[in-house]
Predict the 3D structure of the following.
Amino acid sequence: MATGDQDDDQLRTDSKGRHPPLREDEVERAFDAIVARGRPRLFRTLPELLASGVIAGVEISLGVLAFLAVEEATGSELLAGLAFGVGFIALLLGNSELFTEGFLVPIAVVLAKEAGWWRLLRFWGITLAGNLFGGWLSMWMVVVAFPGLGSAVVATGRTFAESGFTLRTFLLAVLAGSAMTLLTRMRIGTSDDVARVIASLTTALLVAGLSMYHSVLDTLFLFGGIHAGAGYGYGTWVAFFGWTVLGNAVGGIGLTSFLRLVRSHERLYEWRRTAPASNRP
């Protein structure tokens, strides 16, 4: 009987011997929510992933349109950044997939052994392709439909195109990746839609209003400039995108996601210990 009681005690404690009342319940519940919400995303079909990515590209272009219109009218990047929050709110309420919001959740799912690494790479690749196509198409429509914003599109796109590969631009990309991943975590951490909207607006103010370097968002500015005849081409965009997405990954994965997973490592270990091999196709 004593051995059975000891086994029961071990099952009810984590690797540090802590009983449930002694654990950080809020952190562990949040990690459980991350895995539970993230697993279905990695198992979507190719058409579902592609459609979600394209929709996100279209929705985020609404934020770009709002940014350009407000900046043209007021000359204030901070107000324009706040207006850009329209795009983040659309992503939130529309449940579409933006590439840079796909760091913390899918990685947690894979590390919890609820999906394989191939699923993660597939998710990233298809989502990003959809974002870029949707954004390219939407920015063409914006440039054609709002010719009065042409000068603003060209000026903003040229700013990013001519920014160069410097420590400053890389760190701006790191900060943007970290902020976007924090936004993902804040949205999961509350069920209050008002709080989620506020988080979206404040993140937009930081990322767009302070001209941080966001690989997908700023790509839309560059696409808009190309459509409007800014004088640079897709080669310039490719170089900008590669530099920026690297910084976003360092901030989103290497900084924010890593530290969040370290904080939840006990719960992550429990998921890994109990996950059947069949969960990892």
Remarks:
- The CA atoms of residues 94 and 121 lie 23 Å apart.
- Confidence is low (pLDDT under 50) at residues 5-11.
- The chain is about 75% helix and 0% strand.
